[in-house]
Inverse folding.
């Protein structure tokens, strides 16, 4: 799953690929917001991203797109 996190006063958003299921990802985000601490997520390569919940502007979760390569010819 692709996760985009907008951080207050930051010019760019954080983007990472998470190996969590949509349900687990949603639960992790909701629990961090409820606790008011730090949102901790790990990407597919094992890197960790930690963002203080009070600095989060938005979070966007989307399915990873598989890009096709090449050209198609319509008959």
């Amino acid at each position: 799953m692709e996760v985009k996190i907008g951080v207050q006063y930051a010019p760019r958003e954080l983007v990472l690929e998470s190996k969590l299921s949509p349900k687990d990802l949603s639960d992790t985000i909701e629990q961090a917001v409820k606790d008011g601490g730090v949102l901790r997520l790990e990407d597919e390569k094992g890197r960790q991203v930690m963002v203080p919940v009070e600095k989060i502007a938005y979070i966007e979760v989307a399915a990873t797109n598989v890009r096709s390569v090449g050209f198609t010819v319509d008959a």
About this structure: The beta strands are 2-7, 14-17, 38-42, 48-52, 56-62. Residues 33 and 55 are 11 Å apart (CA to CA). The chain is about 20% helix and 35% strand.
